[in-house]
């Protein structure tokens, strides 16, 4: 992982040397820390694009979209996470990556590097795919041309989702063809943060993305999706084992390049607020899913049913069975240290006197959309001063700045296998649905280091393949842990898993898009208004206007999905 730090230093040095080697006395007033665009090396552009994409995906799939898809809930600062209280959301960070990527493609063409051109043509669809999946119609054909003074490029129109998806797939086809020619010139492997210059890895990545976006269109353009997926499957070169998962490491040197909940850079606040959601945790516990202990920590202080107790519940915690007078709870760091030393903490309750049962399991989650999430399961210290000792936290690994499990996951073998399972279930010529489904399970277990549990796990009655789309998508949803954005896109397309909001949700259904942001509303209003008019306004508009998170873009219109 340290190679990224070294890479950044080398990039700065190389760019500086490149500039000075071409400098003349006439150029003495130019920026000494810059590099002329005409001599930029495309290798040096790759890290910025790859890191930006990885961080953007992680910041969605591990944060608020994980709340939407009920992987996690927060017990503090939870409005956007638990209840999707979203304002207008700009997409400038995505288009900034696209501009850098477009420059890399340009320099690749000027230097004759088919490898870097293919990389650009693979990353461009991924970024545009995220934009249209998140917002809907967007500037595409006339985007990235800010140097053109014509108003149609300064204020670009929003292309339809259909056009964008088809353009994405065309670029991916071109990238696949280029990688298929095994271009090997001009590659500096250490600048390629995903594959280290391995062309075969890029080919598998590109073809696997093609499967993703063809399946995205399967409800709206089923014949187009069918022929595309069958073609890609027949040609092969796909990500099918966890060893081929496309991921980005974290450096762990600062908050900007560390895992998003690294406690070293925020005193643990973000980490302590994130909790497993019962929607995800309950079925995993029911099936004895081996990933539970990788992702979640047992509760610090479990409840113990005790009908001999003369009060409804212990007023204080117990340490190794002994009531600790005056101690309602302990600080997280103290709990971790004490439990590591072998101490056991509990609180007893009498359900006959309390009048209700509490969650006494080893792992306890938060229900979705809770009105007071910090108080769940009779937490004696609600609010944000102490963590909820009666609800599980995420596993300790998620406190760290870097770790071999802490990676931004771009696309995985689990996702690819589940796509093929769904396609096979539809009757498309891509092999056996059960086989692909089982390989999706295997790939996810392998990715999280519990592959040895596969043989027993896949035989569980709830896990064994039953030939339904619902089961495939539900297992794909579980496997999308830390990459919940893909699960959201599947949910919008299929309605699975059948998630319902909690009582604090502003609407009784989940959102389906981001709202167009202030930059477009303020500076490209005429074009964004046309796009807004093409949205399908639903009964959940409630006076918000069409530009809201419950309006349906083209991809969902007429499908009856997800609600």
UniProtKB/TrEMBL annotation:
Pfam families: SusD-like_2. Residues 1-26 form the signal peptide. Gene3D superfamilies: 1.25.40.390. Keywords: Lipoprotein, Signal. The keyword Signal applies. It comes from the Bacteria. InterPro entries: SusD-like_2, TPR-like_helical_dom_sf. The keyword Transmembrane helix does not apply. This is SusD/RagB family nutrient-binding outer membrane lipoprotein. It comes from Belliella marina.
